[in-house]
Amino acid sequence: MNEKLLLSTVETLACKQQVVRAVRFNVDGAYCLTCGADKKIKLWNPYNNLLLKTYGGHANEVLDAVGSCDSSHIISGSADKSVILWDVTTGQPLRRYRGHASSVTCIKYNEESTMAISGSIDNTVCFWDVMSRRQEPVQILKDAKDTITSLQVTDHEVLTSSVDCHTRLYDLRVGKMFSDYIGHVVTFASLTHDGQCYILSCADSTIKLFDKDSGELLNTFTGHESKDYLLENAVNEKDSHIISGSASGEVFYWDLVSSTCTQKLVHNKNKPIVSLSHHPTDNYLLTASEDEVKLWGAPKMEE
């Protein structure tokens, strides 16, 4: 079933943040966050090109942020080594966590948003109890030998990718860690919606699809250029297509099964697309290139 996706630009957000380091849909896809080199986070309604709020309090570039499951809080990580918990409505920082020795590259909530998990250039992953007043991490994972580039969290697992060419899956229920050597720097790791596969963006300009349980390589996707950028990947809402940005300013869509490229979107010719975020349940995609974010969508089919 090779359906044509044919996405087109719905809105273009001029973020005015110098460079957008990350763009993220919130949990239901109604809003999005942009993290900037201007040390700020912005909350948008991307469908109306509406800036709702700006959050300032970090002392350096904001590298990642995510909204809580009820969209009442934001947690962010920055090159200033800190993690900040924000109140969405007031825009105020509620807590500032300082446990990392270097830039915080990636951050996620657990499913109930009771815990924040952050990865850093200091090779560690820290767990923060955001419900209590505790300032120290509840737990620190120190298995990686180099920068943590991304992390994903499910109800009982944490998946990390690292510059040390490994992915690590932590099963929190049984207290085990499974490490896989990929052979190349892994710039981003994500999971398919059914939880059965990893999608790994590698620095050799490939994306690799692995079976999570067996560790078997199922497919490789090529055509985009990584160069020296930490590119992100995504999977669409139906688990039918893998999506990645490219140093060439294009967005690639590949069929998950056949690995053929079914569509290329041009965001900004020769300006790298470093961050992207797919809507959780609908056919919308956000892409960030330099200081601009585009919302892509498919025309609604007549019933």
From TrEMBL:
Stored InterPro entries: WD40/YVTN_repeat-like_dom_sf (IPR015943), WD40_PAC1 (IPR020472), WD40_repeat_CS (IPR019775), WD40_repeat_dom_sf (IPR036322), WD40_rpt (IPR001680), WD_repeat_MORG1 (IPR051980)
PROSITE patterns: WD_REPEATS_1 (PS00678), WD_REPEATS_2 (PS50082), WD_REPEATS_REGION (PS50294)
Signal peptide range in chain numbering: none
GO biological process: mRNA splicing, via spliceosome
GO cellular component terms attached to this protein's record: catalytic step 2 spliceosome; cytoplasm
SUPFAM superfamilies found in the cross-reference section: WD40 repeat-like
Main location: cytoplasm
Renumbered ranges of WD repeats: 13-45, 55-96, 97-138
Keywords: Cytoplasm, Repeat, WD repeat
Record's keyword annotation contains Amino-acid biosynthesis: no
PANTHER family hit by this protein: WD REPEAT DOMAIN-CONTAINING PROTEIN 83 (PTHR22842:SF3), WD40 REPEAT PROTEIN (PTHR22842)
Similarity comment: Belongs to the WD repeat MORG1 family.
Protein name: WD repeat domain-containing protein 83
Origin organism lineage: Eukaryota, Metazoa, Ecdysozoa, Arthropoda, Hexapoda
